[in-house]
Amino acid sequence: MNEIKLELHTNAVKNFNEKGIELISDLKEIIRKPIQEEIQPFKPEVYIHQKITEKDIIGDLEEIPMTLIDQAGIHVGKYFIYKGKNIGLIYESYRKLLQLAQNIQKTKELFNMVSVSVVTDLIFSWLVQKYRHKTFFPIVEYLLIKCKEEIKDFEVWIPVALLHIQSDIKIGKITLQTITKERLEYWRSKSKEIAPDYAKNIDELFDEERKQLQGFAASTIKLTAEPKRAFEIALEKTENSISLLRFFSPANFHPEMSSHCTVLGKENMQSTTHLLIDPDGSIRFNKSVVSTARPHWIINDQEISLFRKGGLDLLSNLLLLDQRTKFQEKILESLYMYTKSSLLKDWSDKLIYILVALESILLRNDSEPIQKNVSERMAFFIGRGLNERKSIIKSVTNTYGLRSKFLHHGYMIKDLFTFEEFMMHAWKFFSQLIQNANQFKTTEEFIEAIENVKLA
Length: 456
Description:
Elements lengths: L9 H17 L1 E2 L5 H4 L27 E4 L5 E8 L2 E6 L1 H14 L10 H16 L7 H12 L1 E8 L3 E3 L3 E3 L2 E5 L2 H14 L4 H15 L3 E9 L1 H19 L25 E7 L5 E7 L7 E3 L1 H20 L5 H15 L6 H16 L7 H13 L3 H24 L6 H20 L7 H13 L1
Parallel strand pairs: 6-12
Antiparallel strand pairs: 1-4, 2-3, 3-4, 5-9, 7-8, 8-9, 10-11
Helix pairs in contact: 1-3, 3-4, 4-5, 6-7, 10-11, 12-13, 13-14
């Protein structure tokens, strides 16, 4: 890795240093209520796996920053212990700390390499050191020194739920690769080389993780950043790329199908649990999966070749562009919205996401008649000939009727034929939209071209 040079603009340094000095003056003693007063009147009797006491804490408590959390679970302050007192920032002063952290992290020098949470922790660490007279560095110099220590070259792997691929797939800046048995064994051996004293624990960890990971795809990317920011960037790029891959999922063609192709842990694999108690008192614990559709998505090389021809390569290239047109940005935004529908099970949820995605690209503004313009513009964009266009307009109009009954009257969407037909039209629209990504600069130009076809 080349040596990292972190230098902020002179005016920014001056401003941030002044804000840091203001925070020092905001530090005050925080009086906490006795533990007895914090106990809730009702305490659920949930299973406790392990209790952590002060004996389990390694190191001096005075060296450990503490976070204050209100009853809703919101962070409202940070403090440290100094000479038996809790010294810190709370409420408005704490918000000033968070705002300063956000402003520093947004600078072009740090944005792609350091996370907001790390900057927040480092600012508070500087405050602690200043209060104890253990550092003479201004806040910016302190931050940059600490950040440089954490920034490294990382390779981030993010497993994708229930996705199997025959070969590597590159989408934008991420590459989908299979987590093979050989790869897991290599990682295991390297981990044991680095920490031989924990070989048994490492074996137990890998044996357990193998069950979830082996044979599945993972998004991979190489980044230069501190660990938290590396993960944040990798996660964002993974979710964007996987959303675009999901455009080619069979779940986009039938209301009763849903995809689980997303970051592992977000796959929404719904199941139910119930206890069946017999008359004699014997108990059976039962679990069952809600959906009977095949959850795994297996993509072979022939299929990925078809996906590439159908627009995946175009979408991948859009993700690689440093500067995209407004129209290209709008296409990506609408596709991210559209492909969320494939993850959902409830028909009404699916319908809302699909319609919002269509409206975002087919309407000029909020004042245009929605149903008329969406149906007609879809029809003239994807329809060939009078009869096909009439059929598309009727399909979209009927679908808006389903949405209206749900939103305004609470009727559940159960018309399978109408919804399935509409889903086919919606997918065809976005498929052709992808092919036109380089034809227009703005959404207005795209809509104007459709209107010209109508008038012709």
